[in-house]
Amino acid sequence: MPDRSESDSRKLLGRLRDAMASAGAGQERLDRVTTLVAESIGTEVCSIYLFRDKETLELCATEGLRPEAVHQTRMRLGEGLVGRVARTGRVVNSANAPAERGFRYMPETGEEAYSSFLGVPIQRLGEMLGVLVVQSKDARDYNADEIYALEVVAMVVAEMAELGAFVGEGAALKARHQQPVTIRATVGQEGVAMGHVWLHEPRVVVTRPIADDPEAELKRLTEAVERLRVGVNRMLDGAADGDAEQLQVLEAYRMFANSRGWLRRMEESIASGLSAEAAVEKEQSAARARLGQVTDPYLRDRLHDLDDLSYRLLRLLTGQGKAAEAEMPADPILIARNIGPAELLDYGRRLKGAVLEEGSVGSHAAIVARALAIPLLVQADRITTEALNGDPIAVDGEQGVAHLRPDESVATAFRDKMAMEAEALKRYASIRDKPAEARCGTVISLHMNAGLMADLPSLEGSGAEGVGLFRTELQFLIRSQMPRRSELSALYARIMASAQGKRVVFRTLDIGSDKVLPYMKAIEEPNPALGWRAIRVGLDKPGVLRMQLQALVRAAQGGPLTVMFPFIAQYEEWRAARAEMDKALERERILGHPLPASLEVGAMLETPSLAFATNRFFEEVEFLSIGGNDLKQFFFAADRENELVRRRYDTLNVSFLTFIEQIVQRCADSGTPLSFCGEDAGRPVEALCLAAVGIRCLSMRPASIGPVKHLIRRSHLGEVREVIAQARARGEQSVRAAVMDYLRR
Ligand code: PEP
Ligand code: MG
What we know:
45% of the residues lie in helices and 16% in strands.
């Protein structure tokens, strides 16, 4: 194999482009690619292997191996040297391939004659499409230039595949982005929806991967990089007093935008014949491939930054990709790698659902999705590479599955499921104005959880009696800086006005743990769920709490006000928080502002310790609300954010229900009104059991009010209590089976 020069590479790419441009079927094009590459690089063999399914590679074209092996020879991911390239995404370069560990001999190909092997991945933006291989009889190691040249060809092949150049017969040559795909994911918010893909960051398509004039491409790249640098510097100036995290990202951008290594690699790609945008995409693909292998969170963040930067550069070079230019499809389902809470909120109720490639159950996006009442899936692997704008998609936020381009049978089954839900909704609407009165005559009062102004219309629609939990932190989370007191009080006033006299329980700022304000310094804690959060922050650094309490008092404008402190773990904390409330009232009185006509101040019971507080606490507090999400995680010592353990313990576990019963009893003894506002309040069977053990007030997401009311109205709480008692007497760990059995009967 002769030494390669950049002009050899350019010649090869030029011939490849001509081959692609000529008419012909996908198979013919692939054949031509292998012939050209073998000829140009000077090897006896050049082969292209493509995936026919997620696990299997197929020999799709070859120059030099036996033609009858084409579409016959297949190997599993990881099998043989080709499988190893595909699995690891790394080059395999060997002078003596048969002696390599894992080598697998495919007799039908006649490859025994060839000693040296060079395989490079064919990949695009982190997605592995196949493997490009050259082989020769003499035992030689390929040098860095040759490897680079082959990588450039592989990149072009990947782009061509994306553009549909190789579509033909058989699974390995199927058209991309047209098959149905089922993607398993984690449920961030329950619900089901059908609609069309709306890519938050539209895909940039490189239609011209090969260019003739390297000088001109270099100029385009240099100009685009310069514009990028200016843009990043401007953002940095604008963010000079912003939050540390944003600055860190921008600094990383600046570092990459000025990085010689990054630029040099792109310049080399251009010199070998790629267009400026293909050179950028080659770097982006490499960064994505590394992302798949890096676990260190800091490095992952930096690779993400590099990916974002490449995307910006691609947009500058191609002029494509501005979401605003495209038209949103009907019933849009948002697809993104990740999205911030403010951006998600901007889309608002136009969205029917959202699917994120990353994200977590407790992320801010999930909190907003909950408020918007749209189904959300997180950790949906590869969704952004698979989905195209406008593709039909069904989101199953019950099973945790996204059906992209579903086939007719799946779509029909899904439509049936949605029709059944719509039926159920009609049923719930018919009892909207009726009480949640069980057959035994006990009435359970049902309230809704909220966190945004956008939630308030649900108060009317759901038939909730009031807002049992208003999570005030959402207003803080969706902003890029701390809201001012005047903004908050105006917002709280609007919320009270829209509630039209119904009670709204404002919970003071509950941040820390999973909820980190974008503009506050994040602190590293070994165990954030057990860390400096909620009222602990409010009492240690009372500035924000005081501002918020004042805003609430002002918002009440002399009307009634209800305030609740989160995460109180002991009597002293309650005393201190209550004292802050009194101080706020006093300050407002001195300022001559009207004081609330009536004021109720309560606490959330979210730590087991509070259930054992002194009688004085129960007598002093005006109401208690059990925050079951937190209480359960501490009771069972199972982090609510940790997928490995969070479903391990059932709410209907006898120990937990017994604990709830004890809290009910203590509140009954002291005459303290008690409610339950964790997610379990909105799960009908759980809600029924909570009612059966004595909870008389439940607060839940608005969509749950109908189903919970429906079940309560059909049940007899005394009977359910009896079923629970019997299961307990039999020594069952959870009463779920017994209660389900009762409900079926
Ligand atoms: C809870 O912990 O149950 C609760 C309602 O509060 P949050 O989910 O906001 O922590
Ligand atoms: Mg909580």
